[in-house]
Specification:
With 118 residues, this protein is of the alpha+beta class. It has helices at residues 2-9, 25-30, 65-75; strands at residues 40-41, 48-57, 76-86, 93-103, 109-116. A 5-stranded mixed sheet has the order 1-5-4-3-2. β4 and β5 (109-116) form a beta hairpin.
Amino acid sequence: MEQARAWLAGIDPSTLAYSVMPKYECEGDHGCKPQPRCQQGYIPAMSHRCIINDCGKAKCSTCPDFVNELLQNIVIRSWCSYVCVKTGTSPPEVVAVGAGAVSALRNIYYGPVCMPYP
């Protein structure tokens, strides 16, 4: 979770464009929660829901394959990214972005850790 917080802290939200197109396959394939609320980091004061916009297996792009096998089997199995919107608005008003992870051990979901947008 500390790595997720550090990653989120280093992102400049104004440089990113967020879409609110749910990626439903992340629920089954990667174990992402479908519409969580922010649990850690920034928690919007208004009613909100976070929508999955991407996911993937835990992978280190510069690591040898055996390290990726180790990460996926021992530490983190997969990651989930979210766009959090204020409920009851049309079009959806983005209020935060977040990230979560599914542990390899016991398959437990953690997150999402959020930061305000923009």
